[in-house]
Amino acid sequence: QVQLVESGGGSVQSGGSLRLSCAVFGYTYSNYCMGWFRQAPGKGREGVAVIDRSGSTSYTDFARGRFTISPDNAKNTLYLQMNNLKPEDTAMYYCAASTRYRCTASPYEYSSWGQGTQVAVSS
Asked: What is the 8-class DSSP label of residue 92?
């Protein structure tokens, strides 16, 4: 049974930082596309950052330069370091896994999801 467990969310002021963690149970995440996604109140779920099987990363425009997705193979854990946070980054953040050959930032491509961790950024 595949299980993803996020942690690390919280409340910070604008300009602050948070590091989100996604612990992966039931499989070796490096065999899959892994991604971070977010969903703000009243909005659809959107991609933030993706890492493929080779370790190559890609970022949505709003995340590039501020967020970093990185794996810890020994811990089977995926991280999202978020710096210079803005109020518009406020959302529930999810990690997800995809068995698709091609890794994209579309949430529709991902079949396994964690429960999410809340991030709130105040101005």
From this structure: E
Determine the average pLDDT of the residues in 72-96: 96
Helix, strand, coil share of the chain (percent; to 5): 5, 50, 45
**Lookup: tokens for 68:** 């970093």
> And the tokens for 52?
């493929």
Please write the tens of the pLDDT for every residue from 27-66.
Answer: 877 778 999 999 999 999 999 999 999 999 999 999 999 9
Distance (Å, whole) CA 88 – CA 65: 16
What SS3 state is found at 107?
A: helix
Q: CA–CA separation, 55 vs 70, rounded Å?
A: 8
